[in-house]
Design a protein that fits this description.
By secondary structure, the chain is α/β, with parallel strands linked by helices. It has helices spanning 2-21, 56-69, 75-104, 178-200; strands spanning 22-27, 37-43, 48-49, 54-55, 109-112, 118-128, 131-133, 136-138, 141-150, 153-166. Helix 2 crosses helix 3 and helix 3 packs parallel to helix 4.
């Protein structure tokens, strides 16, 4: 009996933990019931980083210093790193979010630059890039909001989801560099959100 009670308690804790990381705070996704396509967008302005809540400029300055001071890397390595960082911000993060959505829910096609009636808008507020230590990986974490809005009218919010240091694990080969781990957490966010949308629209 004690084992059953303990198992039930652990299950409740895990469920509560998951709800805290991704929580529907207003509205619902019923507007998507008859939709076949949904636009996706990602905002990446004024994002804070790390536990210290530093700006992106500060974060990049710290990374630049680390790369340039590493005798095995240097100026060429930094040029490549910052180029990838900018590319991931502009293209790959939103692509990974859409990939995660499409992976978990096949009835709707989620894609960027779509003229669909509705848009899922990711507003990134905070990121922890995690770290890679060979066989051990610390997953990236994300905080912010995801809003279901009318395309072209972001003030019309039909649903809002809060992300609180969301870091649900998914298997990915893209784990070595910071921008790869961040891309993975966007994909994971998409997967878990799509599961919730799927439940809502049953």
């Amino acid at each position: 009996m004690k084992k059953i009670l303990l198992l039930s308690l652990l299950t409740m804790i895990v469920m509560a933990f998951g709800q805290e990381k991704m929580e529907l705070i207003s509205g619902n996704f019923q507007a998507l019931k008859d939709q076949t396509e949904v636009n996706v967008e990602l905002q990446f302005e004024n994002v804070l980083f790390m536990k210290e809540n530093i700006t992106e400029a500060q974060y990049l300055e710290n990374r630049k210093k680390q790369v340039l001071e590493n005798p095995k890397r240097g100026a060429d390595a930094w040029k490549k790193w910052i180029g990838e960082w900018e590319k991931y911000k502009k293209e790959d993060y939103v692509d990974h979010f859409a990939k995660g959505l499409n992976k978990s829910y096949k009835n709707i096609s989620f894609k960027k630059d779509s003229s669909a009636k509705y848009t899922l808008l990711v507003e990134t507020k905070w990121l922890f890039p995690g770290w890679h230590g060979g066989l051990v990986v610390m997953e990236a974490q994300i905080s912010g909001t995801i809003k279901l809005v009318e395309t072209g009218k972001p003030s019309v919010v039909l649903a809002e989801v809060a992300l609180n240091k969301f870091d649900k694990f998914i298997q990915s080969k893209e784990e070595v560099m910071e921008y790869e781990r961040i891309a993975t957490v966007y994909e994971s966010t998409g997967r878990y959100l799509a599961k919730e949308i799927k439940k809502t629209l049953k």
